[in-house]
Specification:
Three copies of one chain form a homotrimer. Chain A is mainly alpha-helical and about 130 residues long. The first copy, chain A, has helices at about 5-30, 40-65, 70-95, 100-125.
Chain lengths: ~130, ~130, ~130
């Protein structure tokens, strides 16, 4: 089974889930489109989604490029930490935005590890 | 011809078009950078672009991963529905944000179909 | 060495750098999450990051699809212009948002060149 593809699709479905929470928060807190502010709880849900969009743009290319140079199981394992980091980020940001540091670190550090791994693989030229 | 690549590049050019509309709306409605609010019509154009950015992040990986496991013509066909859905979303959101549901559904459902198709393909391990 | 992959990872690290500047601007200008406005200098840093997120979503697919149809050195060279354009955009936007036009053009024109190159390659069907 291609675990790298699996991690990538799970990251996609995770972001769909965060987007659904934003839609739900629009109704719950009465924030009509096109507004994206007006109620603290809506803004928290929206920032979780937007922060995840910002990270997906760097996570997926790092994941797939790293997977060209390193064993699939390692790359997928590091990617799985990102998925857990995003869950922690969502739970902590929803409870209190100031407590988001650990979830953010567990999202960003795997991305940096994959990006640095990709750079090393590219420079060594050891495509698998 | 690689129809999956074609759908992906058309989605890119569609988003460029939405971004151009935002730049034009800045001038038309007098919303100077870095502000992204201040006039309802500008905010509608901006939300169409941002919503499309949010969806591109899940559409493109779903499209390309699904294309590793399923016939190109099916995958490209589902992707083409997304392109039509985005046009409807743009037209309806510009006219009245509350009428955006059908365009949104026709954007999101193809993405979910591709993501679920990708998961099924990964689990069956039937890469083409 | 795979220069196309290298350009892609450098674009990722560049966006990480812009994101770090936003985090730093939160502290410097006292803009607490989830707010994304409230101080002009914070908003400039945030808009540089967001604009780069918006462009990454069209840059990376254009880069990788173009690389399937054209020589790697050409594609990577055009991609490198994007990296320079983003540096100019960041410097000029931080100094004065109204001066961002050249940096933006040097980011967007390489993307359009890659996207159009990709379309031409797809239509000619000359995958390398």
């Amino acid at each position: 089974m291609n675990y790298v593809d699996l991690v990538a699709v799970l990251a996609v479905l995770q972001l769909v889930f965060f987007a659904i929470l934003v839609g739900r928060a629009r109704g719950l807190y009465g924030v009509e489109a096109p507004a994206v502010s007006g109620h603290e709880m809506f803004e928290r849900a929206y920032r979780v989604q937007m922060n995840t969009v910002e990270l997906m743009v760097i996570f997926l290319p790092s994941l797939f490029i790293a997977a060209k140079y390193w064993p699939q199981s390692y790359v997928a394992g590091v990617g799985a930490i990102y998925l857990v980091g995003r869950v922690l980020y969502w739970r902590s940001y929803s409870a209190a935005p100031a407590s988001r540091a650990i979830g953010f670190a567990l999202s960003m550090l795997p991305i940096l590890a994959l990006a640095i791994g990709a750079i090393v693989g590219i420079l060594r030229g050891t495509a698998t």
